[in-house]
Design a protein that fits this description.
With 400 residues, the chain is of the alpha/beta class. The protein folds into 2 domains: 236 residues, Aminopeptidase; 107 residues. The chain is built from 14 helices and 14 strands. A 6-stranded mixed beta sheet has the order 3-2-4-7-5-6, with helices on both faces. A 5-stranded antiparallel beta sheet has the order 11-12-10-13-14. Helix 2 packs across helix 10 and helix 7 crosses helix 10. It is globular and about 65 Å long. It starts with a helix and ends with a helix.
C-alpha cells in the first residue's frame, strides 16, 4: 500500500471513535402556534387595539425565535395573517401536523379595569365562575361559524352544562400541559414582571380535541389601560414572546434524552437552561411595565441606604439560579461551584437561590460571580423576612 494511503487509513481509524458521540434527542419536534381570533373575529377590544392583531404579532415573534434558535424544531401556524380560522380547525391543524406541543395565544378583558396580569389555561373543568366566564368569552367565536351546531355536536358556548361534557378530554396530557403552563407563568412573572394570575383549568374548545400537551396563554388585559399600552408595543410583544420561548426551551430540555451510540437505548438527561439568542436581549431583565427611571430610582435608593433596606424593612436580595417542578438535592451537580444554595417554594415551583445580601449592590456583585461560573440565566430576587416579594412591594416598603 502506498505510504500516503496507509497514513490516511490510520487517521480514519484513529478519528472514527471521536465521531461516535452521544446524541441528544427531544420529543418536542413540531410545535403548533395558534394566534387567537382573526379576520371578522376581532376578539377582545381595548381602547386602542384589537386582540386578534396582538395575538398574531406575538405568535409570529415566538415562531421566529424558535426557528432561529432551535433548528431541529418545525413551527406550524394556525394562521400567519389576519384571517378567520374556525376553532375546531385549529385543533385539526395541530393533530394533522402530528404536533408535540400546542400553544394558543390570547389577550384578556374584564369589566373591572383594575385586573391585570397573565394566566395560562389547560383543558379541564372550570374551578371558578371567573374561569368559566373567560372560556365562554373565547368560545363565543364559534357563533361566527356557519353550521357551528353540527361542527361541535350541539355545544352551546353560553350554557354551563355544555362545558362538563368535554372537560376531561385532555386528562392523558394533563401533567405535561400543567408543567408547561407553570413554566410559562414563571417566565411571565420573573422575566417580564407581569402579575402572576396562575395556572388555571377551563373548557376551551380550541384545546378540546388536541391530542398533545396544550396550553392557552392569556398574555394580559386589554381592559387595563397600562397593560394595553404594553401589549401593543413592540417591546412588550418581544418580552412576552421571549418569556414563552424560554418556558418552551426549559420544557423541551426536560423532554430530551441522550442516545448512546450503538446502544439503541436512551437515558434521561437534565441540563441547566442557557440564555437563548433573543431579538431583544434586554428581555432577560425587564421588570414589568414600570419605566426604566422607576427601576433606576429603586436601585439607587437600595445602594444609597443598604442598612435601611436590610435593616428595619427586613428586605434582602438573593440570586436565583434554578427552577424545577420537582425538588432537587442541594448537593446536585446542577449546583456545582455554588455555595450555600437555598430552596424556597413559589407559585407551585421549587426555586433555588444563593446569597442573602443587604444591598442591591452586593447582590449585583454576586450575580456577576454566579454568571462567571456558567449560570447565565441567574437573576436577582427580593425577599422580606425570608419571604419572596415583588419589586412593587419592595418599592412600597422603601417609600417609593
Amino acid at each position: 500500500m502506498p505510504r500516503h494511503l496507509w497514513t490516511f487509513t490510520v487517521l480514519i481509524i484513529f478519528l472514527l471513535p471521536c465521531a461516535l458521540v452521544a446524541q441528544r434527542k427531544s420529543s418536542i419536534r413540531t410545535i403548533v402556534i395558534d394566534a387567537g381570533h382573526g379576520g371578522h373575529d376581532p376578539g377582545a377590544l381595548g381602547r386602542m387595539s384589537k386582540e386578534k392583531n396582538i395575538n398574531l404579532a406575538i405568535a409570529l415573534k415566538l415562531g421566529n425565535m424558535i426557528q432561529r434558535n432551535l433548528k431541529d424544531v418545525r413551527v406550524v401556524y394556525t394562521r400567519d395573517r389576519d384571517y378567520f380560522v374556525e376553532l375546531y380547525r385549529r385543533a385539526e391543524i395541530a393533530n394533522e401536523s402530528k404536533a408535540d406541543l400546542f400553544i394558543s395565544i390570547h389577550c384578556n378583558a374584564n369589566h373591572s379595569r383594575a385586573l391585570h396580569g397573565a394566566e395560562t389555561y389547560i383543558m379541564g373543568l372550570h374551578k371558578s365562575q371567573a374561569n368559566l366566564n373567560i372560556a365562554k368569552l373565547e368560545n363565543a367565536s364559534i357563533l361566527l361559524e356557519s353550521g357551528y351546531q353540527e361542527s361541535y355536536g350541539g355545544f352551546d358556548p353560553n350554557s354551563d352544562e355544555s362545558y362538563i361534557a368535554f372537560s376531561l378530554n385532555q386528562n392523558s396530557n394533563l401533567d405535561q400541559s400543567t408543567d408547561f403552563a407553570s413554566l410559562i407563568q414563571n417566565q411571565m412573572a420573573e422575566r417580564v414582571g407581569m402579575n402572576d394570575r396562575g395556572v388555571r383549568q377551563a373548557g376551551f374548545i380550541v384545546l378540546w380535541k388536541t391530542t398533545m400537551p396544550s396550553v392557552l396563554v392569556e398574555v394580559g388585559y386589554l381592559s387595563n389601560a397600562s397593560e394595553e399600552k404594553f401589549l401593543i408595543s413592540g417591546k412588550g410583544q418581544d418580552y412576552i414572546a421571549s418569556a414563552i420561548y424560554r418556558a418552551l426551551k426549559e420544557f423541551r430540555e426536560k423532554n430530551t434524552s441522550v442516545i448512546l451510540p450503538g446502544s439503541g437505548s436512551s437515558e434521561p438527561q437534565v441540563q441547566p437552561a442557557t440564555n437563548p439568542v433573543l431579538q431583544n436581549p434586554e428581555a432577560t431583565s425587564y421588570q414589568g411595565t414600570r419605566s426604566a427611571s422607576t427601576v433606576s430610582d429603586t436601585r439607587k435608593k437600595a445602594r444609597e441606604n443598604p442598612a435601611g433596606v436590610g435593616g428595619a424593612s427586613g428586605i434582602t436580595f438573593r440570586v436565583q439560579v434554578a427552577v424545577s417542578t420537582t425538588e432537587l438535592s442541594l448537593k446536585s451537580a446542577k449546583f456545582a461551584g455554588l455555595s450555600k444554595v437555598k430552596m424556597y417554594r413559589h407559585n407551585g415551583m421549587y426555586k433555588y437561590t444563593v446569597g442573602d445580601e443587604k444591598s442591591l449592590q452586593g447582590a449585583e456583585k454576586l450575580l456577576k460571580e454566579v454568571k462567571r461560573k456558567g449560570v447565565n440565566d441567574a437573576f436577582i430576587v427580593v425577599f422580606r423576612d425570608n419571604q419572596r416579594i415583588t419589586q412593587e412591594e419592595a418599592d412600597r416598603i422603601m417609600g417609593k
